[in-house]
TrEMBL record, chain A:
<dbReference type="InterPro" id="IPR032823">
    <property type="entry name" value="BCA_ABC_TP_C"/>
</dbReference>
<dbReference type="GO" id="GO:0005524">
    <property type="term" value="F:ATP binding"/>
</dbReference>
<keyword id="KW-0547">Nucleotide-binding</keyword>
<keyword id="KW-0067">ATP-binding</keyword>
<dbReference type="GO" id="GO:0005886">
    <property type="term" value="C:plasma membrane"/>
</dbReference>
<dbReference type="InterPro" id="IPR003593">
    <property type="entry name" value="AAA+_ATPase"/>
</dbReference>
<dbReference type="InterPro" id="IPR051120">
    <property type="entry name" value="ABC_AA/LPS_Transport"/>
</dbReference>
<protein>
    <submittedName>
        <fullName>Amino acid/amide ABC transporter ATP-binding protein 1, HAAT family (TC 3.A.1.4.-)</fullName>
    </submittedName>
</protein>
<dbReference type="GO" id="GO:0016887">
    <property type="term" value="F:ATP hydrolysis activity"/>
</dbReference>
<dbReference type="Pfam" id="PF00005">
    <property type="entry name" value="ABC_tran"/>
</dbReference>
<dbReference type="Pfam" id="PF12399">
    <property type="entry name" value="BCA_ABC_TP_C"/>
</dbReference>
<dbReference type="InterPro" id="IPR027417">
    <property type="entry name" value="P-loop_NTPase"/>
</dbReference>
<feature type="domain" description="ABC transporter">
    <location>
        <begin position="10"/>
        <end position="258"/>
    </location>
</feature>
<keyword id="KW-0813">Transport</keyword>
<dbReference type="InterPro" id="IPR003439">
    <property type="entry name" value="ABC_transporter-like_ATP-bd"/>
</dbReference>
Length: 260, 659
């Protein structure tokens, strides 16, 4: 395999996040390297989604530093994170159910649209050319994720597994350099999981996108990720390559429970 | 009993005796007409005849440079992609033989064909096919190079025998520029008796055999079909059936080259229905199951439609049943009925054809299996000129065709122009003509055994000519067996009757040397699932749904209807189905239960499920069985179930009621 893992692009240092008296994350540090697939695992309530939300700018940690591409991040909102090339998918699908797959994916291009709505109100002109250029990119993503057959189908009518794929497509439409996937395979059957795994690997290998993912299926995590962070009750209890983490007694105890 | 040669045998134009020469001809006379379209990135992209020829030249040069020589075999595997069709022509330019493989075959099955054909190079569609070939590479000593069409996912493959088609084309273009006469010289060397293509038989009986067909044979069949139905270079066809199937090679290649019309490749196998609508083919070929799926979908959607629409649909379908076919065939129909039908045309038939994507259709054919009379009538009554044909891989799918205006439900038509058909004493259909195979590859024994002493090819099908000279097919000659009491048992005939119900997907009948007939049934998951959903019947999957008593009741009705129908047929009344069961798993080609063209392999199934067959005849009410299955990714698994067995009512023999 000719994949290249580069330098650290995202460095999280001593992150602590609490909601009132509830400590969601306590003093967590880890980094993400360019081009790798980084998994975050842990039991329910371990703080995995909170971690993603911190990276993504939804939550603002009370303590700690976040360095993204060499720049320390100030307080920012998700919109700015997106502009910096961070895209994500959600645990509970957040698509526009009444809109077609195509339109949903087009919304992923929103940040790159340069013309304002007055231009857009005109049928001809630069807006139309821009639309065509964006549509072309979206069609490439549709081809990449093999969802040509549902291009014009309203998302609400699709089965769950396909909706997840459409969400991935929308995130890809923003051409992110860092892609956050919150349980991309939750609730899928074996075949759908295999498909999703393949797409995640394809995205990583062919588009060179760095991926941070949360996943419950241990088999999947161990198969596709380069390094794994393990959280438990808001603390980091393990970090390393899958084989190392799998054999770590602390991790086994916390995550898999005694007896495994 | 022989039928004479028809006067208008198709003539092959001098100078255009091979497919590459025809291609060059089209590139001259209709260079800017579309030859192939493909939907990519949501848009139909067109290759003109001129572009196709240029690409074929480059491909041929590239292949020659890679070491492909006259007589070598080139395997072609993949969905219907323009460049795979062009690869067929490129191999032919060099005097090589394209070997077409089914793209959904598992690696194991491919290994057999690739070894048998001693394939030297392969042009494949994508990573999936490359992976399969690499898996079996150690067993393919003759395979030197693999070229892939779609570079996706191929970046990290380092095997030296792999190369992208883009690079091959580029190398070929340079070669063509430097030696512009090379391709023309190679094309001139080709002769009409050269083998133009090798297609493998589906292997219903034993291992598949490589059928070597010549340019002459396929051009004869192609020209024959074009003349028979007056096809022009303006036809549009949708090429979505496996390229390895003789039907696709005839319709999408031989006929397209013969008439110079346009073939359209769908975006993916899942988008075929949408693509069909967008293209609106004028000429269409599909096996009965495709027509059946189409109609099933119409019905499912109609059941979800509003009451007014449902009433309208039902009313006008009755009108169509009464006079639709007569109007299609131009027979006299009372004025009032004609007006009624015209109203239906505006309100129902026209929009329905449009939804199906068949608005522009002039001629449609079906073949490969028997088509249900209901189904056949349905399409013809809404104004679709659906006809049947009969043929095999060995005859370029060209033996009998139904002429316009002489279409009967239960026959496959008259011998095609230039084809002689006779019925042997044992009831077997035998044919003679230029469209016959040259040989089975490396099987002189089989080749010799396939022909009788007068040079007729023995089709292995049993049939007879009716009073109007139309051929009727009963079954495979060797499948026709006898019950213990000596009465005739034609399993296919019974299975087809069962399969004509939309709820039943597959059926396997047993009865040879047995006291009575029994059957295995596969329900159609979509149709029965929909029915179950509407009744609020919960089920977790195929196995669960198949064993529900309510589903058994439903299927029992179908079986008893078939029995009633059989009871009116003096020869068949003994073949009524006494007992049946619904199989706990769907019959699948991956488990070798069906051939790639979805024909049941009866003997294999009888052995694999011997316990169930015994239980049927032992009078048990149910039987436990465990079955190994192969998943699409090649893993093995197990399905276990307690399969119920039911008795069905049989009817005393009685003459059929009139009408």
């Amino acid at each position: 395999m000719a994949r290249v893992i580069g330098d650290v692009i995202l460095d999280l240092q001593n992150i602590s996040l609490s909601f009132g008296g509830v400590k969601a994350l306590t003093n967590i540090s880890f980094d993400v390297r360019e081009g790798e697939i980084r998994a975050i695992i842990g039991p329910n309530g371990a703080g995995k989604s909170s971690m993603l939300n911190v990276i993504n700018g939804v939550y603002h940690p009370q303590q700690g530093r976040i360095v993204f591409r060499g720049q320390e991040r100030r307080r920012m909102n998700p919109h700015e994170a997106a502009a910096q090339g961070i895209a994500r998918t959600f645990q509970n699908i957040a698509l526009f159910k009444g809109m077609t797959v195509l339109d949903n994916i087009m919304t992923g291009r929103n940040l790159m649209m340069r013309r304002n709505f007055l231009w857009n109100a005109l049928y001809w002109g630069p807006s139309r050319r821009e639309e065509i250029a964006h549509r072309k990119r979206v069609e490439e993503i549709i081809d990449f994720l093999e969802i040509q057959n549902i291009r014009k189908t309203p998302v609400g009518r699709l089965p769950y597994g396909l909706q997840k794929r459409v969400e991935l497509a929308r995130a890809l439409a923003a051409e992110p350099s860092l892609l956050l996937l919150d349980e991309p395979m939750a609730g899928m059957n074996v075949e759908e999981k295999q498909d999703m795994c393949r797409f995640i690997l394809d995205v990583n290998e062919q588009l060179g996108t760095t991926i941070v993912l949360i996943e419950h299926d241990m088999g999947v995590v161990m198969d596709i990720s380069d390094r794994v962070v393990v959280l438990d009750y808001g603390r980091k209890i393990g970090d390393g390559p899958p084989d190392e983490v799998r054999n770590d007694p602390v991790v086994i105890e916390a995550y898999l429970g005694a007896g495994h | 009993m022989a039928e004479g040669t028809k006067p208008h045998a198709p003539a092959i134009i001098p100078g255009l005796e091979t497919f590459p020469r025809l291609l060059r001809h089209h590139a001259r006379v209709r260079a800017d007409r579309p030859a192939i379209r493909e939907k990519e990135y949501g848009i139909w992209q067109t290759y003109t005849w001129g572009e196709c020829y240029a690409q074929v030249r480059a491909l041929a040069c590239g292949l020659a440079e890679a070491g492909f020589r006259r007589g070598d075999r080139l395997a072609i595997v993949g969905d219907n992609r323009p460049r795979l069709y062009l690869a067929v022509a490129a191999a032919q330019c060099l005097g090589g033989i394209p070997v077409l493989l089914y793209q959904d075959a598992i690696a194991e099955e491919m290994a057999y064909v690739l070894q048998d054909a001693e394939v030297k190079m392969a042009v494949v569609e994508d990573q999936e096919q490359v992976d399969k070939l690499l898996e079996i590479l150690d067993r393919l000593p003759s395979l030197e190079r693999i070229f892939y069409d779609d570079p996706r996912g191929m970046r990290h493959y380092t095997q030296p025998l792999l190369q992208g088609l883009d690079e091959l084309l580029e190398a070929g273009r340079i070669h063509d520029r430097n030696q512009p006469d090379f391709v023309d010289e190679e094309i001139e060397k080709g002769e009409s008796d050269d083998v133009s293509v090798m297609l493998y038989t589906s292997g219903t009986t034993g291992k598949p055999k490589g059928v070597c067909q010549t340019h002459r044979a396929f051009l004869f069949a192609g020209m024959g079909g074009v003349q028979f139905d007056h096809l022009t270079d303006r036809e549009e066809v949708l090429s979505y059936l496996p390229m390895a199937w003789v039907g696709d090679h005839l319709f999408s290649y031989a006929q397209a080259y013969a008439a110079g019309f346009t073939i359209n490749c769908p975006e993916s196998s899942e988008t075929v229905m949408t693509d069909l609508r967008e293209i609106g083919p004028t000429y269409y070929f599909a096996p009965p199951r495709v027509f059946e799926n189409l109609r099933t979908q119409v019905w499912i959607r109609m059941e979800d439609a509003g009451r007014l629409k449902q009433a309208m649909f039902r009313h006008f379908m009755k009108v169509a049943e009464r006079c639709g076919i007569q109007i299609l065939e131009g027979r006299p129909v009372p004025l009032l009925q004609r007006l009624h039908y015209a109203l239906g045309e505006i309100l129902v038939y026209g929009p329905l054809r449009n939804v199906l994507g068949l608005s522009r259709l002039r001629v449609a054919y079906t073949a490969g299996a028997a088509i249900g009379p209901d189904l056949f009538r349905f399409y013809r009554s809404i104004g679709i000129n659906l006809k049947q044909l009969y043929g095999q891989t060995e005859t370029c799918a060209y033996v009998c065709l139904q002429p316009d205006g002489e279409v009967k439900l239960d026959s496959v038509g008259k011998p095609a122009p230039g084809v002689e058909v006779k019925i042997a004493d044992n009831g077997e259909i035998r044919v003679r003509g230029p469209m016959l195979l040259k040989a089975y590859y490396k099987r002189p024994q089989d080749t010799a055994e396939a022909f009788d002493e007068e040079g007729y090819f023995m089709t292995g099908d049993a049939g007879f000519f009716d009073e109007d000279g139309h051929l009727k097919i009963i079954d495979r000659a060797k499948d026709v067996g006898r019950l213990k009491d000596g009465s005739i048992f034609a399993p296919n005939y019974i299975e087809n009757k069962l399969k004509f119900f939309p709820l039943i997907k597959e059926a396997v009948a047993f009865g040879h040397d047995r006291p009575y007939v029994t059957a295995f049934i596969n329900i159609d998951l979509e149709a029965v699932g929909n029915w179950a959903e509407r009744r609020g019947l919960a089920y977790s999957g195929y196995t669960d749904l198949a064993q529900q008593p309510a589903v058994y009741d439903l299927i029992q009705q179908c079986v008893e209807e078939v029995n009633e129908d059989l009871s009116h047929d003096p020869q068949m009344s003994g073949s009524q189905i006494r007992r049946f069961l619904i199989l706990h798993k769907e019959l699948d080609a991956d488990d070798e239960e069906l051939t790639r063209t979805r024909k049941v392999r009866r003997r294999f199934i009888a052995e694999k499920y011997a316990v169930l067959v015994e239980a049927l005849y032992a009078g048990k009410d149910s039987q436990y069985i465990e079955t190994a299955v192969k998943y699409e990714d090649g893993r093995a698994g197990k399905i276990a179930a307690e399969v119920r067995i039911r008795d069905a009512k049989v009817f005393p023999p009685s003459p059929r009621a009139q009408g």
